[in-house]
Write a structure and sequence with these properties.
about 280 residues, 9-stranded mixed sheet, 5-stranded mixed sheet
Length: about 280
């Protein structure tokens, strides 16, 4: 089987242990790619949700086994816990098998960019470690996730491809966009203070590449709603990929350039990178 090869891969917000986790698409992605460095950028296991309602299908164990196998094959794997798996932050500086646990990391791309990698809940304007819908409420967010599951169950029976229902709200509702822009501003401000070229994070379930005053903002998205990953090519080009039945590159920061550009993507995927 031919696999896509990258220098680095960044994924976050998998939320294993919840019904909304798209473990099927993530497993396909992991088994279709190879990389030198894999960053697990937080909220991989949703320990908070499992305390309230235990849920663990076989596919979720397969995802964890795949991470272990990837590390065993020689890929450097770094696990940076997020707010939903925050109890694992106590393991920072230690290893789980061959997987290193860290609070954050500095990643240097092939073309020399120095990027801080962290989950990103520290940039949450509400300081509550919640998702983009803090302003709307947890109940409404769960309702959207439930609707998303129901919608895609019907689409699957009709042999229609996966569609993330929440992107309509995130791309069109003014308050959601304002929240996202504020988050991006705080993330890049921190990277600027540290003298770095950019920040890689997750947390808000909205994959995006942007530039703020010469500093890169790179959000790898999630595997609950949008099914996206950030990848680094061998030349240092950074790209946001969507991975479901249909796969596409959404945005790209080319090697040696500081301003990300939308990739030449099909019309069905354009909403994933829309900013309103």
């Amino acid at each position: 089987m031919d696999r896509l090869r990258f220098r680095s891969i960044f994924i976050s917000d998998v939320h294993l242990g919840t019904r909304d986790c798209r473990a099927d698409f993530l497993l396909d992605f992991l088994r279709s790619t190879r990389c030198e460095q894999l960053y697990l950028v937080g909220d991989i296991i949703d320990l908070e949700a499992m305390e309230q309602a235990p849920y663990w299908p076989a596919r979720h164990s397969e995802v964890l086994a795949e991470f272990v196998d990837i590390a065993a094959r020689g890929t450097a794997v770094t696990y940076i816990p997020g707010n939903h798996d925050a109890s694992l932050r106590g393991l920072a500086g230690q290893r789980i098998g061959a997987i290193e646990v860290a609070l954050d990391a500095i990643h240097t791309t092939a073309d020399g960019k120095r990027l801080r990698v962290s989950h990103g809940d520290e940039f949450d304007p509400e300081h509550q470690g919640k998702t983009w819908l803090t302003w709307f409420g947890d109940y409404a967010y769960r309702l959207i996730c439930l609707a998303n599951r129901k919608l895609n169950a019907v689409r699957k029976r009709l042999r229609l491809p996966y569609f993330a229902l929440s992107i309509l709200a995130k791309s069109r509702i003014g308050k959601a966009l304002a929240y996202i822009r504020r988050y991006e501003s705080l993330a890049t401000a921190r990277a600027r203070e540290l003298g770095l070229d950019g920040q890689i994070c997750g947390h808000i379930h909205f994959g995006h590449l942007a530039e703020h005053g010469g500093v890169l903002y790179l959000n790898d998205g999630d595997w609950v709603e949008h099914c996206t990953a950030l990848v680094e090519h061998l030349d240092g080009t950074l790209e946001l990929l969507h991975w479901s039945e249909r796969r596409a590159a959404l945005m790209r920061a080319a090697a040696g350039e500081s301003r990300p550009q939308p990739a030449p993507i099909p019309a069905w995927a354009q909403i994933l990178s829309a900013r309103g």
